[in-house]
Specification:
Layout: H1 2-44, H2 51-143, H3 146-150, H4 152-170, E1 173-175, E2 188-194, E3 203-209, E4 212-214, E5 217-220, E6 222-227
Parallel strand pairs: 2-6
Antiparallel strand pairs: 1-4, 3-6, 4-5
Length: 228
């Protein structure tokens, strides 16, 4: 019985050993196939992926592309918005500049006109004050006799009168023509009327006081007598 028991135990141990060796050989074969596949993939430069690994890789690449494209698109929109705002600001400043230039040009023209009007008013005021002195010169010269005119005083008065009239003419002052001219209410002031066949109807027959103009503006109307 002891011999039989030992024999069975020995056979059982040998069977277990063979089974373990077979299992070890199978594991080594599987490992060799995996290593061979990896070596082949390394030589061809291709990556061997299981279906699950390929899906994960595609999804990762898609997410990566979306992450890369999103900032670029947002950046383009921001740049376009900034450019539009810049163009609007340039247009606003350009419009403001044009308006300021137009306002300044109008202000300059208005100021020049006001200065010209003020200068003309001042000149007319001074000329009006000088006219009575001219009238006095003319009355004094008209009252001189031929002998007095030939004297030094008479000649001096006449020279001063001529010099004064030359200065006024240079400043734009001129006498209004009246004697023998048709009566013009814009230039003449009729204070008397007479019947005179030597002059035509509505004609100035006598100048009682000379009138003067400054440029195109009447300073003093001529005081005249008009023939009917």
């Amino acid at each position: 019985m002891a011999d039989i028991r030992e024999k069975l135990l020995k056979e059982s141990m040998e069977a277990a050993k063979k089974k373990a060796e077979a299992k070890a050989d199978a594991s080594e074969n599987d490992a060799g196939e995996v290593s061979a596949g990896e070596e082949a993939g390394a030589q061809t430069g291709e990556e061997i992926n299981t279906p699950e690994t390929a899906e994960d890789t595609g999804a990762a690449e898609a997410v990566k592309g979306e992450v890369c494209e999103a900032p670029a698109e947002e950046k383009s929109k921001e740049e376009a918005t900034a450019k539009d705002k810049k163009d609007e600001k340039i247009a606003e400043l350009n419009d403001r500049l044009i308006r300021n230039l137009a306002e300044f040009d109008n202000y300059r023209k208005r100021t020049d006109k006001e200065k010209s009007q003020m200068f003309e008013m001042g000149a007319k005021s001074i000329i009006e004050k000088i006219l009575p002195a001219i009238d006095s010169f003319e009355l004094g010269l008209a009252a001189l006799s031929e002998e007095d005119r030939a004297s030094g005083v008479g000649q001096g008065m006449e020279k001063i009168y001529k010099q004064l009239m030359t200065i006024l003419e240079g400043a734009g002052v001129k006498q209004i023509e009246a004697l023998g001219k048709e009566f013009d209410p814009n230039l003449h002031n009729a204070v008397m009327h007479e019947e005179n066949e030597e002059f035509g109807e509505n004609t100035v027959s006598q100048e009682l006081q000379k009138g003067y103009m400054y440029n195109d503006s009447v300073i003093r109307h001529s005081m005249v007598k008009v023939a009917n």
